[in-house]
């Protein structure tokens, strides 16, 4: 069912947007120094709340809507003067930041997706490709345009960068009729409780390698998911400083 949620989310993005209900959905990302685009640093919202720029799984309401927020277990936390997103629960629910309408997003100009994450507890025994065990301490999804037809419907292509409980670090997996690729960046408890880890991924290179063709210049969305609902084992994780960066000046794309 979790993969179906992403499908519903993408179909929702295909419908016309109401300025009243969807204000800010097409705002350009904030441009920082050196051509960096800020996706989210969780600094503008109050501690203890959900980030205001993120939406529920089908883009019907903001995640911090009074009714919607009751369903979420992410909240902004502060440590040493820095705010970040914290998760400590079992429930599976995506946080979605749509990118489709943001005209200054072009991954050929800023192909490097960078973020920080940390995990203090993994959902024990979880496995992202095993039925009934599909939990993860931390995941970042990049969702692209529609892929092949499956179950009589088109489904989005997505790359899921994950901190897995059991899958081998460095391994890559293909599920959902080949339309979701899982890239395992961390695994198990080796680096749990050790603090923040900075990740950088070249989205253009990863997409070409995983799907065998060129990506569209603008992803549809970025999603965050931590969960332990399949095995009822909680995950504890944090996310921060999501940005898109250009390639270093001394490297040709």
Structure characterization notes:
The protein has one domain: Galactose-binding domain-like (Jelly Rolls). β7 (136-150) and β8 (153-164) form a beta hairpin. The strands form two sheets. Strands 1, 2, 3, 4, 6, 11 and 13 form a seven-stranded antiparallel beta sheet that branches. It has 253 residues and is mainly beta. The termini are far apart. It is built from two helices and 13 strands; from the N terminus they run αβββββββββββαββ. Helix content is 8%, strand content 38%.
How are the SSEs ordered, and which strands pair?
Elements: H1 2-13, E1 30-31, E2 37-40, E3 74-79, E4 82-89, E5 95-98, E6 112-121, E7 136-150, E8 153-164, E9 172-175, E10 180-187, E11 197-202, H2 203-211, E12 221-227, E13 235-245
Parallel strand pairs: 8-10
Antiparallel strand pairs: 1-2, 2-13, 3-4, 4-13, 5-12, 6-11, 6-13, 7-8, 7-12, 9-10
Structural class: mainly beta
* CATH superfamily caption: Galactose-binding domain-like
How much helix, percentage-wise, in residues? Answer: under 10%
For the sheet with most strands, the description reads: 7 strands, antiparallel
> Rg to the nearest angstrom?
17 Å
Fold-level CATH name:
Jelly Rolls
Q: What's the overall geometry?
A: globular
**N/C terminus separation:** 37 Å
Report the β-strand fraction as a percent range: 35-45%
Total number of strands = 13
Oligomer: single chain
What is the number of helical segments per DSSP (H or I, 4+ residues)?
A: 2
CATH architecture: Sandwich
Count of the separate structural domains: 1
Report the top-level CATH class: Mainly Beta
Average predicted local confidence, pLDDT = 90
Order of helices and strands: HEEEEEEEEEEEHEE
Provide the low-confidence segments as ranges. Answer: 3-20
């Amino acid at each position: 069912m979790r993969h179906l949620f992403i499908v519903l989310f993408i179909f929702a993005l295909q419908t016309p947007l109401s300025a009243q209900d969807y204000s800010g959905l097409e705002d350009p990302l904030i441009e920082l120094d050196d051509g960096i685009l800020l996706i989210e640093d969780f600094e503008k919202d109050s501690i203890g709340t959900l980030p205001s720029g993120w939406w529920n799984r089908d883009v019907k309401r903001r995640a911090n809507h009074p009714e919607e927020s009751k369903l979420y277990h992410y909240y902004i936390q502060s440590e040493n003067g820095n705010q970040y997103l914290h998760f400590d629960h079992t429930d599976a629910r995506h946080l979605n930041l749509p990118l489709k309408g943001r005209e200054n997003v072009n991954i050929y100009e800023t192909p490097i997706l960078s973020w920080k994450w940390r995990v203090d507890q993994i959902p024990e025994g979880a496995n992202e490709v095993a039925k009934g065990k599909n939990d993860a301490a931390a995941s970042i999804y990049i969702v692209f345009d529609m892929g092949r037809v499956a179950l009589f419907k088109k489904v989005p292509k997505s790359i899921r960068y994950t901190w897995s409980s059991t899958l081998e670090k460095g391994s890559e997996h293909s599920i959902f009729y080949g339309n979701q690729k899982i890239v395992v960046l961390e695994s198990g408890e080796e680096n749990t409780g050790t603090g923040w880890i900075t990740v950088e991924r070249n989205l253009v290179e990863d997409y070409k390698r995983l799907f065998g063709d060129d990506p569209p210049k603008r992803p549809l969305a970025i999603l965050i998911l931590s969960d332990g609902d399949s095995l009822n084992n909680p995950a504890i994780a944090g996310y921060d400083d999501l940005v898109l960066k250009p390639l270093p000046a001394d490297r040709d794309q």
